[in-house]
Amino acid sequence: MKRFLTIGALAKQAEVSADTIRFYEREGLLGSPDRLASGYRHYDADAVARLQYILRAKSLGFTLGEIKGLLALETDRENGVEGVRQRAQERIADLDRRITEMTGMRDALKALADACPGSGEPEACPILSALHGEETPECREGGSGKAAS
């Protein structure tokens, strides 16, 4: 006999909230479950595995839209594996781009923080000056001449 779960039991087992499960259903990531006569959702064990898949994909940086695409590719016997590989490479390229951007932001902010006296008049603080859009030597050294946006 197949074991079924309520939304609360599924949420507990997958370590997500019931609202998250409802959201994933609305987004088409998790199939709509059968409902009991009482209206309660009735999930099978496959729902736990699907939620764990979604959570692992999210932990690798995939967006929910990308995860939906990965789920669709999983059933494509001809192009699925190559499609999944291509999506992973695209995600890696995006992560590399974001790492570069964040490194630049960190370096610019570090230069401002290092130059800030930490006391005195607000006008002497290069961080505040940069936030007001004023050029500072630290920002010019960071590359853009203004605080990173």
TrEMBL record:
InterPro entries: DNA-bd_dom_put_sf, MerR-type_HTH_dom, MerR_fam. The keyword rRNA processing does not apply. Residues 1-73 form the HTH merR-type domain. Keywords: DNA-binding, Transcription, Transcription regulation. Coiled coil: none annotated. PANTHER family: HEAVY METAL-DEPENDENT TRANSCRIPTIONAL REGULATOR HI_0293-RELATED, REDOX-CYCLING DRUG-SENSING TRANSCRIPTIONAL ACTIVATOR SOXR. This is Heavy metal-responsive transcriptional regulator. It comes from Novosphingobium clariflavum.
